[in-house]
Structures are given as structure tokens and as C-alpha cells.
Model the fold of this input.
Amino acid sequence: TAMTPSKAPTIAAVATAAGRGGVGIVRISGSSLMPFAQALSGGKTPRPRTALYTDFSDADGNAIDNGILLYFPAPASFTGEDVIELQGHGGPVVMQMLLARCVELGARIAEAGEFSKRAFLNGKIDLAQAESIADLIDASSQTAARMAIRSLKGAFSEKIHALVDNLITLRMLVEATLDFPEEEIDFLEAADAQGQLAALRAELAAVLAAAEQGAVLREGLHAVLAGAPNVGKSSLLNALAGEDVAIVTHIAGTTRDTVREHITLDGVPIRITDTAGLRETDDLVEQIGIERSEKALGDADIALVLVDPAEGINAATQAVLDRLPESLPRIIVYNKADLRGETPKRTEHDTGSLKEIRITLSAKTGAGLDLLKQALLDAAGWQGESEGLFLARSRHIRALETAQAELEQAVQCGAGQLELLAEHLRLSQRACGEITGEFTADDLLGVIFSRFCIGK
Done:
């Protein structure tokens, strides 16, 4: 029989990845779940935070599976509510049977990220820490994983809270001056308000710089390989990826669709798209590939344009360059250096609107490949790993930039504009508060947590 639902609906989900495994976990969260645990364990009473080896029973008392039941009473749990974890055998059928039993007992299937959302709403973690859970799961390199765990443990949040505390202190001074204008003591001058404001700007700039580096680790770089047919785009992609992911032949137009590969350089994820040779063609299939290539160019952060040194930038290559968006940075790669006995090198050229990097290398032998890798890291804005970094998202960067802009406006306020100064400080504090969730709209919470895994 189904249990009576509490005011806070009980939720349940399979917390382990889909597919078969040695162990599978079903997670349950809600209010007053001891009867729930007793029903699942055939009437046993689990001790808090103590592993209970038991059969997991169906409504008739028959065993669905056997394994370990863990009971975490509120508030000492991940969500701040009562939490039960069933650790059973990791077969998908068994997991679904256990989940169905939980629904039979009165739970509903959890939405994506709902456990983490409840942890945030119940004050167990702030919003930046909640997001770092998803970032840790999605980390594409060891460096990104280390930075994500730093954010999860509160390193990023501590920086933000320190900024907010200092902003509050300065706001108190300004507003005290507004509230008591008859006082002879100049509160702002006595407390060195200008010095505090300068220190705040420097502190915010340092946090923003670290967050921007963290965003590079999280977002990475999207590069596209472009060039006339048969100049070695696929060979270069294979050399960067370290394996044969694209077909390499001497026939022009071999790559008829976009080929994507993810690599990691110094911990930074680089997504490389090898486009179909951009040229005029009557081949309908190749035309579709070229259309997809042009779409990839529109989404790219940088273009790698391959040139055969024997021909230089000929009409076919110039046609490719003409198709690139004007604002898209590009690296011109002169391939096949081994065939001409050339030494790998990197040079920079000012083309007017953009600074163009030119690299001579050999995709076949790998000579000069390190020059290209460093150029890609430079394009991503990566300055190297340091202990002060933490993974950050684009919304964090926007919030910090808004806070910085408000402080810049605050600096411009004169002695007779204290009300305006107070308002800029308030808006700067509000922008910082959006990062940890103090001033986050409910609709934004829905967007953030909907991108989490089921069971988190």
C-alpha cells in the first residue's frame, strides 16, 4: 500500500549511470522517511548513518534485491531532508524494480538536479557549489576536476562572500553618512572609504581574472579546421588527437561531412571540427557537407586554415579565407614542412582588423605541432594552472563584470552624490549575490538545475 505523502513530496531516482554495473544506487529524499525505510527493508529499523545489509522487499514481502540501506535523518544529509540510499546490484531491470517500489510507497520520480536543488533551497550548499557538482561530473580533464572540487568545497564562494562582506561594510559607512548628515564627523574620510573602494576594485579584479581562467577550463575552445581540399586537414586532426579519426587520402573532397574530435591541452578542452573542403561543387552530398562546415565556422572561436606551402595562398585557399567571418581569429598553418625541408616556426602578422598567427609544421612527422598547441592555448586565453583558480560559468563572469562596472561607476561619484554611490554599491553587492544564490530568481534556478543529471 502507498504511504501518505508528506507536505514536502518524497522524490526518488536511480543515482548511478544508465546501463549495467556491479553496484547500482537508488536515492530517496523527503520528510519523515523512517516508515519508508522500514517498508523497503521488510520491517527493520535502520540506525542513522549505519550500513544495514538487508533484502529490499516488495509489497508482498518478497525480495526484489539485496544490498545495503543507508538512512540519513534530517538535517544531516545531502539535501537537508531525510535521505535513503539503496545500494543494490547494478542491473537496469533491478534498479527500475526498486524505483517502481519507491513510487508505490508514495515517492515520485525526481526531476533532473532536484536533489541538488533541495540541498540549495535547504541551505546545505550555495548556488555556486551546486553548479560545481554538475561541473565535477562533466569535467573533461583532471585539471577541470580539481578546480570543480575546489568550488564544491567552497573556495569560489568564500571569495564571493568576502567581497560581499566588504561591500556591506562600505555601504554601511555611506548610508550612515546619509542618515546622520548633521554629524560633524566625516564618516567616509575617517574610515578611508576611498581606500576601501580601491581595495574592493582590486579584489574584484583578481576574482574576475581567476574566474575567467576557470571558465576557460570549463568551456574550452571550439576550433575549426578549414582549407582547400587535400591540404592535410584530416592528417592534422589525427596528429592533434593522437589517433585516426578522419579519413586521409589523396582524393580531393574526401571529407564530406564535419568530423569532430575532443582533445585536452594542458587541461583545457579543445573541440576541433574538421570541415568538408570549402569549395564550389555539383556533388549534392558534398554540398550538404559544405553547408554544415559553414555553420561550424559560425559557431567557432578560432579557425585553423591549412595551406600547402608548395602553392601558398592560392585561389582555392583565398576562397576559403573569404568565407570566414571577418571577426573570427585565425591561425594559418603551413603544412607538409617535411617535404620542403623547412624548419617549424611561428610568426605573427597584423592584417589590420585581426592579428594573424602563421605556423609552419608537419602533421605527418609532428614537427612544430607543439607550436600549434601553444597557439590554441593562447587563443583560449589560458595562462596555466594555479592554486587560486576555480571552475566558473559564463553567468558567473557576467555577474562579476556587472559588479565591476558598478564599482567603476561608484568611483566617479563626487562628494555630493552619496545617494548615487550607495546605489552603485548596492547593485554591485546584488550582482555578487547572484553567484551564490542570495539574489537569484526562481526561473533561473529552474534553468540551472534542469541541466543536472537525474539523481543529483
Observations:
- The first strand starts at residue 11 and ends at 14.
- Confidence is low (pLDDT under 50) at residues 1-6, 245-258.
- The CA atoms of residues 332 and 359 lie 6 Å apart.
